[in-house]
Specification:
six-stranded antiparallel β-barrel; 375 residues
């Protein structure tokens, strides 16, 4: 197959490209330039897709003996991922930019461009497993599963891609049980990135100061912090900088009457108000998620009603919890997911988060949290 290898400049994507070459595919490497600031530099292990990363990707491609290109996707990245990030926070929701990047950049802009150029698939360095099931009629179904590397599993952020894009995606690191194995593989192949630190935090906020980034882009919008009785207990510089479940950085002028810790329990953007309350108000057992994407038709598993014996996960490295779900449509006719937790409740679920439905290690579907409450 003709395979386009997305090479970020890190060890994971370099080894993924190497494995695609070793498998006999005709591989071309491409680095996605996502920053409009051409002078952007990585700060330690913060951020990615910098000038240094582009150079590291080129050197890896040279070692592998494959063609290498840099594609400027910065405008698309700014218009989709960054714009969505700002709009979601401004609306009082909590976005996951990695999910949006996979949706709009890696498995939309990149994959569609690769297809237009005649490539059969895109290979990335994500930690996830693709399992192909043969049907009784001879058909084949590709399933997205968790990686055996629990610590690095990225099936959560990949769930937004859906079955059509999964059919044209390759995750060569799917079988690796640890990052140490991947680094050893890179060292064995003479790839200089074998000891390169992992990137973390939000790539376009390389210094890690998300509130500062939001303030620079959205401006100062002073408002009040109130308790659940409506009493003013503090001030803020913009409700957009707060998220449900947050405890630190609340700027409260006085402690709670009972001396207990307080958390953000609501962000009311219409009045620019942040509401704080005790921890028990964060626990929910009902969730509604919109913009649903299913890898399999729920009816195949449980009929048109509730799908039992599944788990849901609402954070990239959060623990999955037992639930039952059903596929529904919202007021606009768009696909959505209703969730009832059947085990312990979830705490601090915020609108805008990605909710992924699993059965065992298999991803069944994904949606964006619209609302969470206590039933």
């Amino acid at each position: 197959m003709r395979v386009l290898a997305a090479m970020s400049g890190g060890v994971d994507s370099a080894v993924a490209a190497a494995l695609a070459v070793e498998a006999g595919h005709d591989v071309v490497g491409v680095h996605m330039a996502l920053s409009r600031n051409r002078d952007q530099f990585r700060t330690g292990s913060r951020g990615c897709c910098s000038i240094e990363d582009a150079g590291d990707a080129r050197r890896a491609a040279d070692v592998l003996g494959i063609p290498y290109y840099v594609w400027d996707l910065s405008e698309r990245f700014e218009e989709t991922v960054v714009a969505d990030f700002l709009a979601e926070y401004e609306a009082g929701r909590t976005p996951n930019p990695c999910v949006r990047c996979n949706e709009h950049i890696k498995f939309e802009a990149l994959l569609d461009k690769a297809t237009a150029l005649g490539f059969d698939a895109v290979a990335t360095g994500h930690y996830a497993l693709v399992v192909t099931r043969e049907g009784a009629d001879g058909s084949a179904t590709r399933e997205l599963h968790r990686s055996p590397n629990d610590e690095k599993d990225q099936s959560y952020v990949l769930a937004v891609m859906g079955p059509d894009r999964l059919a044209r995606a390759m995750f060569p690191l799917g079988g690796f049980a640890s990052k140490a194995e991947v680094r050893a593989e890179a060292e064995r192949r003479g790839l200089s990135v074998s000891a390169k630190p992992d990137s973390y935090d939000i790539c376009f906020v390389a210094d890690g100061d998300t509130p500062g980034f939001l303030r620079d882009r959205l401006g100062s919008r002073p408002g009040e912090v109130v308790d659940t009785a409506g009493n003013v207990v503090g001030e803020h510089d913009g409700a957009y900088a707060f998220t449900v479940g947050q405890r630190r950085g609340l700027g409260l002028g006085r402690p709670a009457a009972d001396g207990r810790a307080r958390y953000v329990v609501d962000v009311q953007t219409s009045s620019n108000t942040v509401v704080v309350g005790p921890a028990e108000l964060l626990s929910v057992d009902r969730v509604s998620a919109g913009k649903a994407v299913w890898f399999t038709t729920p009816v195949e598993h449980a009929g048109p009603g509730w799908l039992d014996d599944v788990e849901v996960q609402v954070r990239a490295h959060g623990a999955p919890v037992p639930a039952r779900v059903r596929a529904t449509t919202d007021a606009d006719g768009a696909a959505s997911i209703d969730v009832e937790l059947t085990g312990r409740p979830l705490r601090g679920v915020a609108a805008g988060q990605s909710l992924v439905v699993y059965r065992g290690t298999r991803v069944l579907g994904q949606g964006t949290v619209a609302r969470a409450w206590r039933g």
